[in-house]
Fold each of these.
Amino acid sequence: MNVLIYIFLAIGAVFNGLGAVALLRFPDVYTRIHGATKCTTFGSIFSILAVVIYGFWRGGGQGGTLAVHALIALLFLLLTNPTGSHALARGAHRGGIRPFRAVVDRLEEKR
Amino acid sequence: MLYSLAAMLRAAEWAVTAAFALATYLVLVLWTGGIGLWSLSELIAGAVLSAIVGMVAAPILWERGGFRILQPHRWVLFFFYLVGPFFLAMARANLDVAFRVITGRIRPGIVRFNPGLKTDLGKTLLANSITLTPGTLTVDVDDATGDFYVHWINVKSLEPKPEEVCGPFPSWARRIAE
């Protein structure tokens, strides 16, 4: 069981790290949002799964509380992360920021 | 008669919202005492708080209908969607984005497509699924026409079909929400 927890934590750390690298490497706000939302959500899912497994494995009131609270945090992360990034992207586009090196921009044509 | 029907509808909306709030609260305070798994003070606090939450939130939440989500088989479908196709697509997307982070090979653009969804819930579900998966990010949704404007990190065609951008998600969103 310990091995599984370590594997999940490692996957989570790697993907969260990749999200940070994406922030530095990508050229404009939209591509950076890609890196910052997807990689960190996926990484956080695995980190939280590790916590959940640890909590249920330890058992009892304390472990169970830990696991259930982590699951609820995961649920709200999955709900709020796409909503927040959508708001950021929409705000950026309305504020007049054009996607870098875009081959097509249908939203610009609409306005 | 009409008035009482509207009042009953409002009461039902309040009851559903309050019940959901109470369930969330009870899950948060599991293992606190001896009545079931809860202590008496937590049960009382939960009842009072969920009644208030129901009064405040119900008129806003059910303003534009959306009662379909109360059918239980939609919850089962949603669960299978989350652990099955959605999680698979998410894993693939992350490997893809990881590859692009390292090589820097991108061809970005904002494309438009129309998945033909009608309800608010279906649109929200699809937009959030798109944002979390294969190199795509929902920038805007046109409420009147149902058009989705999606920032795509690797544009393959300028006038894509919904299936090209987000695979089986539109049909799943239709199954769950409409």
Amino acid sequence: MPESIISIQHLSKSFGSFQAVKDVSFQVNKGDVFGFLGPNGAGKSTSMRCMLSLIQADAGEIRLFDLPIKTHRNEILRRTGSIIEKPDFYKYLSAYRNLDIFARISGTYSSKRDIYAMLDFVGLHGREHDKVGNFSHGMKQRLGIAQTLLHNPDLIVLDEPTTGLDPQGIIDVRNLIIRLKEEQQKTIILSSHDLSEIEMIANRMVIINQGKSIVEGSVKELMSTEHLLIRLEAEPVEKAIQVLSNAFPDIAIELKSGNLLEFHLNRSLVPQISQILNAQEVDIYSLEAKRSLEDYFIKIVQQDAI
Amino acid sequence: MLFKSVINEFIKIVAKPRSYLGIGAITVLVGVILFALKSDGLSILSFVTSSFEQTLSFEGNLLNGNLIAFIILQMLLVQIPLLVALVTGDLISGEFAMGTIRMVMTKPISRTTLLLSKFIAGAVYTACIIIWLGIMALVFGRIFFGTGDLIVLNTDGLVILQEPDILWRYLSGFLVAFLALLTVASLSICLSCFSENSIGPIVATMSIIILFTIIGTLEVSVFDHIRPYLFTTHMASWRNFFEEPIPKSSIIQSIVILVVHNLVFLGISIYTFNKKDISA
């Protein structure tokens, strides 16, 4: 049985009359890169804040490293590195001094050399003594990751770590997460709006919506049973719609523009599309079958809303 | 962890430009007062002593460094709470405003420890302000005006203190003045725990000081019962050290009331900060 690093059971939290988290449960195992997915306002950040005791949960049980956060907060946080929402630093201090300040209260000793090495690791070599107020968002994000890793934590919590980064920054963060998992066997939980990124990085995930966890499991398993999004350009398009509707009565075909159609279809039925259309003398100009977590995510959230 | 966190707080205070506003303001204000008294101090002094000249004769250097320091303290100890609150009112709320509180509180440091470290750092900053005021008033006053006996005009009349009897009174007075300013610092830190912006606690602290001062000044019987317990009533109790004889019971009462205020403000701060959701 895998070792549980995070166990959240029936977590609830309200702010006044607004219930931000209603009933969130999930488990993160050792070595997981765990995706924490949900639309804006779903309760991801609130759940993460409860997990790190930034806010107090109204109900539910939170255990990290098999210890309750309520009674073992400092012990747990000593083994955890995190960025919640966005990395905010003391703008009037240098990158080095910011890390020095956070290192001093992280519960482990970090030497000057460790701090310089970490700044080098995240690509801030040469900017150590620049004030953070002059840093771009991407540089602050790198510094945030440095702050997260400096005390060599076992668990890394990243709340939307790629938000606001340029494409190269996103690739850098993604590669860094993969390196942390593969080379250092860290356990990582990350929320992100870039769902394709979760699909690329995470091995397990939970989807939450309106404060409730809807589905949890391995990314591969959750994706394997899912229908694919088909984008088809065919002519004559009316005939294509009629033929496909007859062949697959359960699907909803959407005419996007011109001769472009979109619909969801089970993976096993995809090879039949071209056979059926060719037999009915419908010309196919392009056929794209996309297995997208984004589509899956939107669908499952919509189902939950119904 | 407390010691490490106090070091962090010192680093932040030293690096913040606003921390030097107080030092700068005291330097400029004392400089202006010293210049004004150097230019026209004797005529001001003769205006005060003229009513006594029929019964007393004054000899020696009356406008000396000791008198200058007393005048400066009397003038500035009203404004200095603002300079203290500028820094201490920002200690907690500033972390919320910048968002750094999220990063700090995901580290293995308890909220009480963090708050105590800020309180200690605020106290040291307050002490620095008082020490700088003392240096500016007493040292520079003596350099520019020399030394001599101190004449103090109280409600009971004129008190003349001999030169060797003065320095310890100043040191004691500064200690009580420090305690009074520490109460202001505690109040602003306490208010800082309720706010997530920097300006609110500073304005609220000054508003409370002004309100309490007005209540303390108004000769209305309704306020008679609460007046002795307002911390603002005791902010000028440093002056008691320049009475003859020294009203010890009055000083002790002031010290007790100021210490109780500090403890109450600190207690409220710890309770509030521990209960507060960090959703900034």
